[in-house]
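Hi U.,

Before I forget, here's the chain from the pilot set. I'm dumping it here mostly so it's searchable later in email.
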Amino acid sequence: VDGKPLHLKGVCWNPVRKGGIHPQDTDYLGFAAADAEIMSRAGINAIRTYAVIDDPQVLDIFWEKKIHVLNTVYIWGKDPLDLVAQRVNAVKNHPAVLMWVVGNEWNYNGLYVGLPYPVALQRVREVVSLIKEHDRTHPVSTVYGELPSADTLAQLHEVDAWGINKYSGLSFGNLFNQWGQISKAPMFLGEYGADAWAPRRSTLDEVDQAEATKVLTEEIVKASSVHPGGVCIGGIIFEFADEWWKDGSGSPDVHDVGGISPGGGPYPDQTFNEEWWGLVEYDGKPRKSFWTYAHIQIPGCEVAQAALRGSAWETDPIWAKKLRTQVCGAHFNCRRKLGYCCPKEDGVFDACCESTAIVPPTEEPHPASTTWLPPPPGTHVTPCEETVYRDESGEFVNGHFQVGTLGCLGV
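Structure:
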């Protein structure tokens, strides 16, 4: 980028207020001011989204902090294709946009509507071509669950960079060597990490989450393309802040502890506790994993990062909690307003903070969870097996289908 190698030290960002659900309550404008500030203090230089950011005001905020955006322009298989050009053209000239993203582990979810694998692949190929018709300046990436097959790589030869979602305990195993053997294209970790809930002890577990953050991120740094022979352009850890809507058996107003144990997955218990993945809590309080991530140096970075080692920011985390509780997006009637509302930066409370009127959310179809689950050991999955999808609930009934990878069950 600008003639210099770039290593992505990123986070997945999907800001949804307490009590809301994705995507209708995803509020980029309402949370951007606080979240970009908190991210910048950890040396984070990239975000990946699960919907498009088409508002230049949001991009302005991140670019001011020198945070690049991997902007997802197509993720839901029922979106009409003519939206692709509209989304790309809206912000293609903004400097914050690093690359476009198509899909999220679509080989498992069939673009969240259960399309058979060949149909989902064709859709991704069409979208990639459409993006390139309207923008030849930015790379186009797609995010896949585990490694794609040689055939998939050949059919999607127009894809410029590949994101790989992988949850395999405390190591990526032979991922980087395998990628180097099957492709010369840049790759990055589209999702990785661990959650902060220990179901076996029914307690918060920040220590193991921080350990996974450290070990896995250091593996990514070691494989960085900044180094001679490296194949990885960085990683996007999952995720920035807790999302309270994701446990389908719970309430979006409650921090639920439900999880699924498919027999493989994140360290240490292979259980996906969907509402506990944040480097920061919902209210912005940094977990141990936030500071662990902050202290990992970006390879090739000449200037020391803003990790603030030993500073007052690290010993007094109230600053982050204050930012995220005062930002407009955290308050129902202030949603989709830019900046801080309760109070504003001048200390005055916006009128929206005093209102208690409740407006029901717009009924819109929404994708399922943003993380994938691998199958239990010994599970047999037939290639191209179709998935039965219960669209109204955002859950798969009988698991995912699988082609050329290990496949997965659940969402």
